[in-house]
Design brief:
The protein is α+β, with helices and mostly antiparallel strands and 209 residues long. The chain has five helices and ten strands; from the N terminus they run E-E-E-H-E-H-E-E-E-E-E-H-E-H-H.
Length: 209
């Protein structure tokens, strides 16, 4: 059985010429959500991810928003994915696979997760508008691509229906949050990681594929 005392936390700092990001993540403590990226709609989505994923998330990010939002949003995805993987640690006796649906009024989204050590994003989403709340909606895909690549997981996202762009995107973030919450849940019945290879690391997954 995985020890209840094992803390699944991570802090990651990333600084480039384009962005400066500090991020703290605790997969087992839903107590703290503090998001400041300078992009209000993105803050709202990260807050939804934190709250519905039942994880503490603190993000302080600055970027070259005078250029556009791309570097900031993508780099937050990189840092969050890195923190996610670090927080999981080496004891991966977890459920691993999970799926969830989340509705928001007219919109319905589905997210399916496999914490496999393999990075892959399927993004079956067509959004109604290109901008919502001053946010470039093309960057939703960029965020999840960066997150999946650095968290080393499979993430399949599908927008099943919806007309309001805000609702569409928020349903996507909420469905992903719910799936991640279930996938990282510890499974006390496991004596080893849930893999025929005996490992969920990226390197071993490549070598044994």
């Amino acid at each position: 059985m995985a020890s209840k005392e094992l803390k699944r936390k991570a802090q990651v700092v990333r600084k480039t010429r384009e962005t400066s990001i500090r991020l703290s993540l605790d997969l087992d403590d839903p107590g703290t959500t503090q998001i400041q990226t300078g992009v209000g709609f993105f803050d709202h989505m990260l807050t939804a991810l934190s709250r519905h994923g039942r994880m503490s998330l603190e993000v302080e990010a600055q970027g070259d928003l005078h250029v556009d939002q791309h570097h900031l949003v993508e780099d937050v995805g990189i840092v969050l994915g890195t923190a996610f993987r670090e927080a999981l640690g080496t004891d991966l006796r977890i459920r691993r696979f999970a799926q969830a649906h989340a509705p928001l009024d007219d919109a319905l989204a589905r997210a399916v997760v496999d914490i496999s050590g393999r990075a892959f994003l399927h993004y079956g989403v067509t959004l109604a508008r290109t901008v919502v709340g001053g946010f470039d909606t093309d960057l939703v895909r960029e965020f999840f691509q960066a997150f999946a690549a650095n968290a080393q997981l499979n993430l399949h996202i599908d927008l099943l229906h919806g007309e309001n762009t805000h609702h569409q995107i928020e349903a996507i973030f909420k469905a992903t949050a719910l799936a991640l919450r279930d996938a990282v849940a510890r499974d006390s019945t496991l004596k080893d990681v849930p893999s025929t290879k005996g490992t969920l690391t990226e390197r071993a997954a490549r070598e044994n594929s």
